[in-house]
Amino acid sequence: MSISVMLVDDHPLVRLGMAGVVSRQPGYAVTAEAADGAEAIDLYRRMRPDVVLMDLMMPRVGGLEALHAIREFHPEARVVMVSGSDGEEHVYRALHAGARAYLLKDAPESQLAECLQAVVAGRRYVPPDVATRLAARLDNDALTGRELDVLRFLAQGLSNKLIARAAGIAPGTVKYHVKNIMAKMGASCRTEVLREAVRRGIVDLAH
Questions:
Q1: What is the C-alpha end-to-end distance of the chain, expressed in Å?
Q2: What residues contact residue 108 under an 8 Å CB cut-off, 6+ apart?
Q3: Can you tell me the distance from the alpha carbon of 103 to that of 81, in angstroms, rounded to the nearest whole number?
Q4: Eight-class DSSP state of 189
Q5: How far is CA 143 from CA 98, 117, 190, in A?
Q6: 8: three-class secondary structure by DSSP
Q7: What tens digit of pLDDT does each residue of 105-123 get?
Q8: Among the residues of 97-144, which ranges form H helices?
Q9: Cβ atoms 36, 10 nearer than 8 A
Q10: What is the spatial distance between Cα 178 and Cα 160, in angstroms, rounded to a whole number?
């Protein structure tokens, strides 16, 4: 019997493209499609596909939230997170939440084929380019918990004084953390820090 695959993406054309790639893999068949995480959770409970290819960023219910819900229902669920972002924080969060693999949307067809084979065989799959990003998240330059807090306050547009008040620390300590954040992210100003933080997936200025 064919290995059943569910596609989850809020863009119909993306689902159409993925369906074409999956259909060209011997032994695989797309059996369900969802336009957001909420629909994916419901369909998974009813259909129990063998593999889920799910977008990370979707309206209403995103990929990570859907992944958590699916794994609560079925801890052994084989979910591949598919994203347009190679930001190391996105990769880390997806794998830490239980995704079996992380693929970029511009990955070649051969990579998706390798990914499906690995996941069905019970292995994890992280392409070399994505693994490099993940290594950056885990190296010694990773931001500390306090630095992440300060960075998120920066993303809200708060001054050092307001950050100090919100975080319950001295303004001088905020300045120290901001300096460290800039050094670790290779930035020379707050604007560059935020741009890099968005690229890495650490903050989302749309929310």
A1: 43
A2: none
A3: 6
A4: S
A5: 22, 35, 15
A6: strand
A7: 888 999 999 999 999 999 9
A8: 109-120, 128-138
A9: yes
A10: 9
- CB-based burial label for 113 (10 Å; 0-12, 13-18, 19+): middle
pLDDT tens profile 28-49 = 999 999 999 999 999 999 999 9
pTM of the model: 0.69
Give the pair of three-digit tokens for residue 156: 């809200």
Sequence-distant contacts of 27-30: CB under 8 A, at least 24 apart: 27/2, 27/3, 28/2, 28/3, 28/116, 29/2, 29/3, 29/4, 29/5, 30/5, 30/6
CB 78 within 8 A of CB 51: yes
Residue 189 in contact with residue 195, Cβ under 8 Å?
A: no
**CA gap 175, 160 in Å, rounded:** 7
Contact predicate 186/180, CB 8 Å: no
DSSP assignment of 52-96, as one string? EEEES--SSS-HHHHHHHHHHH-TT--EEEEES---HHHHHHHHH
